[in-house]
Each structure stands twice: as structure tokens, then as C-alpha cells.
């Protein structure tokens, strides 16, 4: 089996490749990625030299290059992770989200339509469903109601993927997953940002009152769900993925403060918590009903939030070269612009 994996140098895609390139030596994996600020080729070093792995730098916004690569590689399966992924960046600069997430997906679908692929799997987010109040869960039939330029661009890409199935019979599947955390996540997202700020004794910026809720899933559990859908999911279907691990942001940050204190011997670090101006259009709560995936494909998450967060913290503490590499780019500039004047 030949897999074309887009966005494989980012957080979720690199964890996917590190796991499956080694676990499936008889399959071949071709990773394409534009290598944005959020990617790190160092994340792929565990598989970089394996004979069933190949990498090419490619921006999906380039229609001709995308078509040519798909034609030449002739994959059996495309797994489409590539996207601009950070809500705050989509608020300050939405244009790149429209290009990569909508135009990029369109170009890949067009290329896939011209080849005889057996599956196009689109990796999406629960944020397309908008915001929940205190009660209820997102199901696969929840109407789309995105709030941010990021989630609106992902919603548009989901619609395109579904349309290519209905119109052109492209064999697609879609997954909509809750918030991920784990190794190799760029430290602009809540969990790695808080871990690294704890390490440096910097303020931990909490938006609003910290009462917004997210449903956290360890990245390897997300990837095992994706592989289950790629292997056995029904064509044209959507599957929600979630960890049954709802937490208010404030509780996530308090747990990180306690565990970082334990792991580094610095004692509880919650004195670093700082309340800052809220995110515009901030969705209140996300929570997933993943029973379709469980009932049809037998998928269950293996990590609880307690086990996953400890693993994640240890990974960041043990991989200081990866962290130093990430922070050497324009990371500091992003922190300065996103958090300046928020207090
Ligand atoms: P990420 O930002 O860490 O990685 C995305 C990767 O895609 C980067 O390496 C980037 O260079 C690449 N990319 C972006 N635009 C591209 C383009 N035009 N051409 C080629 N490559 C491009 O994001 P992530 O957290 O790994 O997310 C991966 C996918 O999972 C995204 O589609 C995202 O919407 C989805 N998702 C993420 C989460 C989460 O919590 N992180 C949850 C649910 C779904
Ligand atoms: P984030 O990791 O950006 O994921 P998403 O917006 O896709 O859910 O944010 C998770 C939650 O944490 C969200 O409610 C916003 C909040 N947050 C903060 O309170 N402070 C921060 O510095 C960041 C980045 C996020």
C-alpha cells in the first residue's frame, strides 16, 4: 500500500508517521509538507532513513506541482493532515488559512480525482460545529456553525471533500477530532505553551476567566482512530473522534503547574498563572460523542488525561534540542505580538 501523507512535518502528522512507518514496513509512506513555522523535520528523524519513507517539500497551493506529484507517486491512499491550524493566527492573519486549507484541499482533491486512489482521508476538527453551551455533545449530524477563520476554512474544506464524493464518487472519509496534545506540538497551542513557560518561569496567559472547556485527546489516540477509519471506515462517512476528557482551561493549566513543579523540583508553579484579554469569538465549550467510531470500528482511546499529560511533559523535558530548534525561529516574535497589550 502506498500512502501520501500531507502535512506530515507538523504535530499530528509527524506522530502519525513516526508510528506507522515503523509499524508497517511493507507499506510505503510519502510525506509532503510546505515546511511552515509549525513544522519541524527533526520530528521525523526517527523514520527519516527508513527505506519505506520519503519526503518532499511541496505547497498544496501550487496546483501544477501538486498534480504532478500525485500523478507520479500514484498513491493508493491520501491522508490529508496539511492545514494552517492555530485559531489565534487565523484571527490576526486569515489569508493563509483560506489559501492552504481551502485552495490547498481543492488542489489535492483535483489531483486525486485524476488518479485511481482507493481512499482520500480528510483530517478535520470538531471546531466546524461551533460552540456548545454547558450541555450536549457534538454528533456527526450537528450542523456546521464555525466561529473563527480557522474553523470556517476547515468547514469549507470538509464541504469540498464531501462534494467530491457525491459528485465525482471520490472514495472519501472524514474525521472531526477534538483538541490534541502530546509530543512534537508547536508551543503556540495551550498545552505546550504552558509547559515551556513553566520551564522558563514566564507568565501563563489564560484567556478570559479560563472557564472555556475543551475535550482533550492524546495524539496517538487520534492517529489510531484515523488509521482505523482509513483501514475500515465506510466510504463517504464522517466519524467524530474525542477523548471523553473535558476540562476547563484553568484546570488544565493548574495540572500542568503541579506536574511541572513535581518533575522539575520547583514546587507548584500556579503563581505564574496570569489572566489576559479573551480571544475574540472564543468558543465556550467543545465535547464529542465518539460512539459511532466505537460502535462501528471498535476504537477506544488508550490514554486518560492524567497519563497523557505526564507523558507529554516528560517528552518536552527530555527533548530540549527539539525545543531549542523550534524557539530559534520567529517564535519569540509571535509571542510578543499575540500577547502584547493583552493584560
Ligand atoms: P500543525 O500546524 O502542527 O501542522 C500542519 C502541517 O501542515 C505543517 O507541517 C504545515 O507546514 C503543513 N501545511 C500547512 N499548509 C500546507 C500547504 N499549503 N501545503 C503543504 N503543507 C502544508 O497542525 P496539526 O495540529 O498537526 O494539525 C493537523 C491537522 O489536524 C489539521 O488539518 C488540523 O486542522 C487537524 N486537527 C488538529 C487538531 C489539534 O488539536 N491540533 C484537532 C483536530 C484536527
Ligand atoms: P488552543 O490550544 O489554541 O486550541 P483551540 O483554540 O483550537 O481550542 O487553545 C485551547 C484553549 O486554551 C482555548 O480555549 C483558548 C485557550 N488559550 C489560553 O487561555 N491561553 C493561551 O495562551 C492559548 C494559546 C489558548
CATH hierarchy, class of the domain at 2-183 and 217-243 and 285-302 = Alpha Beta
Low-pLDDT stretches are: none
Averaged pLDDT, please? 97
Radius of gyration: 19 Å
- What class, by secondary structure content? alpha/beta
Question: Number of helical segments?
Answer: 12
Bound molecules: nicotinamide-adenine-dinucleotide, thymidine-5'-diphosphate
Total E-strand runs: 13
Name the CATH architecture of the domain at 2-183 and 217-243 and 285-302: 3-Layer(aba) Sandwich
Give the helices and strands as they follow along the chain: EHEEHEHHEHEEHEEEHEEHEHHHH
What amount of the residues lies in strands?
15-25%
Query: How would the global form be characterised?
Result: globular
Strand order of the largest sheet: 3-2-1-4-5-6-11
CATH superfamily of the domain at 2-183 and 217-243 and 285-302: NAD(P)-binding Rossmann-like Domain
Distance between the termini: 52 Å
- Main sheet specs: 7 strands, parallel
CATH topology of the domain at 2-183 and 217-243 and 285-302: Rossmann fold
Amino acid at each position: 500500500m502506498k500512502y501520501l501523507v500531507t502535512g506530515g512535518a507538523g504535530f499530528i502528522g509527524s506522530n502519525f508517521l513516526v508510528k506507522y512507518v515503523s509499524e508497517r514496513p511493507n507499506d510505503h509512506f510519502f510525506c509532503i509538507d510546505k515546511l511552515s513555522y509549525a513544522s519541524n523535520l527533526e520530528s521525523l528523524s526517527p523514520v527519516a532513513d527508513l527505506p519505506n519513507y520519503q519526503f518532499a517539500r511541496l505547497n498544496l497551493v501550487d496546483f501544477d506541482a501538486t498534480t504532478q506529484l500525485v500523478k507520479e507517486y500514484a498513491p493508493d491512499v491520501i491522508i490529508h493532515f496539511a492545514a494552517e491550524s492555530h485559531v489565534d493566527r487565523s484571527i490576526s492573519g486569515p489569508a493563509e488559512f483560506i489559501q492552504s486549507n481551502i485552495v490547498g484541499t481543492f488542489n489535492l482533491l483535483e489531483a486525486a480525482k485524476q488518479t485511481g486512489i482507493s481512499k482520500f482521508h480528510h483530517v478535520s476538527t470538531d471546531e466546524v460545529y461551533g460552540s456548545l453551551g454547558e450541555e450536549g455533545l457534538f454528533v456527526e449530524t450537528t450542523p456546521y456553525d464555525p466561529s473563527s477563520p480557522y474553523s470556517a476554512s476547515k468547514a469549507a474544506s470538509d464541504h469540498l471533500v464531501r462534494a467530491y464524493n457525491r459528485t465525482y464518487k471520490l472514495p472519501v472519509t472524514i474525521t472531526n477530532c477534538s483538541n490534541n496534545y502530546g509530543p512534537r506540538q508547536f508551543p503556540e497551542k495551550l498545552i505546550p505553551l504552558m509547559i515551556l513557560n513553566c520551564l522558563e518561569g514566564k507568565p501563563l496567559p489564560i484567556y478570559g476567566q479560563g472557564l472555556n472547556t475543551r475535550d482533550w485527546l492524546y495524539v496517538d489516540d487520534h492517529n489510531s482512530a484515523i488509521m482505523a477509519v482509513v483501514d475500515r471506515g465506510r466510504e463517504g462517512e464522517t466519524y467524530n473522534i474525542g477523548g471523553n476528557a473535558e476540562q476547563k482551561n484553568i484546570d488544565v493549566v493548574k495540572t500542568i503547574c503541579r506536574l511541572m513543579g513535581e518533575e522539575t523540583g520547583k514546587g507548584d508553579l500556579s503563581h505564574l498563572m496570569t489572566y489576559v484579554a479573551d480571544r475574540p469569538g472564543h468558543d465556550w465549550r467543545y465535547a464529542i460523542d465518539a460512539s459511532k467510531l466505537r460502535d462501528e470500528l471498535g476504537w477506544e482511546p488508550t490514554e486518560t488525561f492524567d497519563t497523557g499529560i505526564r507523558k507529554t511533559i516528560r517528552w518536552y523535558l527530555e527533548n530540549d534540542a527539539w525545543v531549542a530548534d523550534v524557539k530559534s525561529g520567529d517564535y519569540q516574535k509571535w509571542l510578543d505580538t499575540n500577547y502584547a497589550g493583552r493584560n
